[in-house]
Amino acid sequence: MIFTTRTSKASLLLLVVLILAGIFGWGGLWKSYTLLEESVMYNLDPTAVRAFTYGERHFSARNASAYDIERAAYFFGKAADIDPTYPYLYHELARIAFLKGEFETAMALIDMQIAQMGDKAPNSYYIRALIEGYKGEYAASAKDYEYFLKFYPTNWAAVNDYAWVLLKAGRAREAAETTARALEWFPDNPWLLNTNATALFETREYAKALQAAQKASIAVSKLSEAAWLQAYPGNDPRIANKGITAFKKAVEDNIHSITLALASSTVQSSVKP
Amino acid sequence: MRQHLHKLKTRAQLFRIHKEWVFAAVLVAVAILATLLNSRQPFASSEVQFTDSSASGLAIVPASCPSSPHYAGECDPSPVCNVPAVAALFGVNCPEPAICANGASNYPTCTFPPSTCANGASNYPTCTFPPSTCANGASNYPTCTFPPSTCANGASNYPTCTFAPTCTLLRYCVGTSLWLRNSVCSTSLIEACSNDCGCVLSPSVIVWQVRPTLVQSGERVNVNWDTKNVKSCTVSSTNPPGDIWSGKSGSQISGSIKGSTIYTLRCTGLDNSPVTRSTTVNIIPIFQEQ
């Protein structure tokens, strides 16, 4: 009798869980469980390590179900309250501020990180370069990219972003050379191809620019969500599709502009006074 | 005895009811939480909505691959490059080390003169650097300390450049602590407090896009903007009759563009500080035979 009652209660519980899962999805239920578990565990054992680990859990493009930038910021903040010297803490807070568009705060935080860990955390220079680039401080950004590239000289994303700030600083020739070198190692990388096309356009090498842009178009059409998320590791995985679409549109717009310029220059050169 | 048993039974029934209520409440809480979590909009960062314009208006797409502290070489060449023989076997493209004639890396064009430098240092090369760029990446650096045996043109043993940094004043929170960044970019802890310390965040433009920026006469462009920590924003254009839109964020299609047009976003921050962004749309010239 007892067995029957317990079995029926367990079945009822299972049924309720299945109904809730059907309504809200397993992801929603799992998230709820995770949040409850985190809150309970953190209150029982509030350490910087635990807070940082929970923060990292919610700040990874590779963990779609857990991605939650506000919750990550909350736990990184908790970690900072407990141990402000915890490694990479300001780095992560700076990344979050950067992603939220709070560039001044991001800059102050990454400066704190660099003051704390210096060359032991070279990718903090990369973050600072990104922030400076978005703030329009191109010379300082180029300097930080160059410094980061001393540690990772063949990192395609750093080369691509370095070329971006070179272009913004009016150094298109260098941008074209830098991206061309990196394309020898990553010949089908859509970011490098697109930036190379842009640099060649700026140096008025329209035919080569069109060639690179067309290659970029083919490369971006094959771009998978996994590859996109690898390129933007701090971003919400749920916008990967939107990001790829925006990238494709940027490349197509570029092809449009290059084609117009090429046609215009061809007409111009064929019309002789 | 019977009365006592009755009391116990009633208590047991009440307890059962309480347990059921608790169970139901937990389920409802979980359901509400799950609903809230599932209804959360994807986070659109400033980074991924951002494609920057080159001088001529082409779209550049920055990435951010090595930004995570857990970066493990995903955006570097294949690890087999560490073993050249294996790389050659599989035909993997591996980078060549970039070393200049004088042994320094990332150097530009170097020519070695037979004689000495102007300042007496010997055997130093004359190097032609790209405009406004030092070997250490600094441009137009202010205070430079040249070590001994360094050429006047800065080649080899580059000087240590000390920048006098300037920053805008900034109050920001780390956890529950209020920090201040001063005008020379030093940061200091102001106070640790349990609330938000009254931090008023600076206004920021998360998205500002005008696409394309090179058009044929009569074409239209897309204007997108999104801001944060602002009271109000206006987008205006110089092209008569001119497009004017307002709002903290928006997505609009311009009127027909007949000549070079500047689109400007002007916002007032919550702290009353202004933020402005501008983009110029140019017209492709059409050449006609006379």
3D architecture notes:
The complex is a heterodimer of chains A (273) and B (290). Chain A is flat. Chain A has a domain at 171-273: Alpha Horseshoe (Serine Threonine Protein Phosphatase 5, Tetratricopeptide repeat), CATH 1.25.40. Chain A has helices at residues 2-44, 48-57, 69-82, 89-99, 103-117, 123-135, 138-151, 156-168, 172-185, 190-202, 206-221, 225-231, 240-270. With 273 residues, chain A is mainly α. Chain B has 290 residues and is α+β, with helices and mostly antiparallel strands. Among the domains of chain B are: 122-130 and 142-164, no CATH class; 165-199; 204-283, Macroglobulin (MG2) domain (Immunoglobulin-like, Sandwich). Helices cover 16% and strands 29% of the residues of chain B. Chain B has two helices and 17 strands. Chain B has helices at 2-39, 84-90, and strands at 52-53, 59-60, 109-111, 126-128, 143-145, 160-162, 170-174, 177-181, 187-192, 204-211, 214-215, 222-228, 230-237, 244-246, 249-253, 261-269, 274-283. In chain B, strands 11-17-16-13-14 form a five-stranded mixed β-sheet, with no helix packed on it. In chain B, a hairpin with a 4-residue loop joins β16 and β17. Chain B is extended and about 110 Å long. Chains A and B meet through α1, α3, α4, α5 and α6 of A and α1, β2, β7, β8 and β10 of B.
Q: What strand order characterises the main sheet of chain B?
A: 11-17-16-13-14
In what range is the share of β-strand residues of chain A? under 5%
Mean pLDDT of chain B: 69
Strand-residue proportion of chain B? 25-35%
Main attributes?
heterodimer; A: 273 residues; mainly alpha; Serine Threonine Protein Phosphatase 5, Tetratricopeptide repeat; 13 helices; 0% strand; B: 290 residues; alpha+beta; Immunoglobulin-like; 5-stranded mixed sheet; 3-stranded antiparallel sheet; 2 helices; 17 strands; 16% helix; 29% strand; extended
Task: Give a nutshell description of this structure.
The complex is a heterodimer of chains A (273) and B (290). Chain A is 78% helix and 0% strand. Chain A has 273 residues and is an all-alpha fold.
